Amino acid sequence: DIQMTQSPSSLSASVGDRVTITCRASQNIDTYLNWYQQKPGKAPKLLIYAASKVQSGVPSRFSGRGSGTDFTLTINTLQPEDFAIYFCQHSHSVPLTFGGGTKVDMK
Amino acid sequence: QVQLVESGGGVVQPGRSLRLSCTASGFNFSSFGMHWVRQAPGKGLEWVAVINFDGNDKYYTDSVKGRFTTSRDNSKSTLFLEMKSLRVEDTALYYCAKEPWMIPLGFYYYMDVWGKGTPVTVSS
Asked: Hey, is the C-beta of A64 within 8 angstroms of any chain B C-beta?
């Protein structure tokens, strides 16, 4: 199985900050990597697919990069509504696996 | 508007069974693969199963193989998850989610729309 490791597990930031979250795969997954945002009591929301493609309706301050084993999600100019938990997920093959999540909270 | 609504969750004793449903609306359900993903209380996301558009191709995570079965009734735009021999560690909020694109073969293996989930508690 492909293991997905996210870092950090949590971070504190302020509105207007630039935030970067890292996800590492245990083997080469090309660009089969997706990012989700989850707010308390809500279902996950797709932000980025195929490592760098922004899902329709997602603000342009969200961006993704990477290929192979190392990936990043960047939020430029953090907004109040961006405080949430972020998960990466590989879509290389089954079983699909998610990273452990990164909680972004207010400094 | 694309919508997924799960139902059927509840409290059940270990070893018992439960059947979850997911009713879809706002899109051509019969053309899309569908996933089940669960989230234990306070924990991360765990993929459970995927089924293709016509129900003939299914995959499961190892921990549920032989105990869980996913199926679908395209005439009723409904996805099912039959769960048997439930264990305490199956306790979670169960989400259904759809694949992003129609595809005649295979899967994209990610999810663009999720339901709100239905809770399952396995406890004696």
From this structure: no
